[in-house]
Amino acid sequence: MTKFNAGDRVTCDINDLKAEVQYGPVTSVTGQEAYLVKWLEGAAEGSSGLVWSSDLTLLPKFEVGQKVRFNFSSAGKSYELVAGPFVGGDESFYVVRDSKGNHETSFEKYMVPVVQ
Question: Of 7, 22, 56, 73, which residue is least crowded by CB atoms under 10 Å?
Fold first, then answer.
């Protein structure tokens, strides 16, 4: 079973809504593992609820079209995600494009979002 961490963005498979994990896992009185999530959309947006872990799917950390930089890149240099995520072994990677149109690949763990 997938383990989630506080801050992970997930989709609830029951209602197809996005949420953010706030706490967990906890074991319910029925013995099922569950997580406390904060709903990011829908009628319950902003409120919290308990969801069985089997009903949650982890969302990718980044989205195609998003601007990122690398942990080690110089200030101001950013890249655009053009494809991904792809699974390489036990890590996710993306195809990125620099400002000159050159393409490279990068593992997710080396990227941080550019806040605009």
Answer: 7
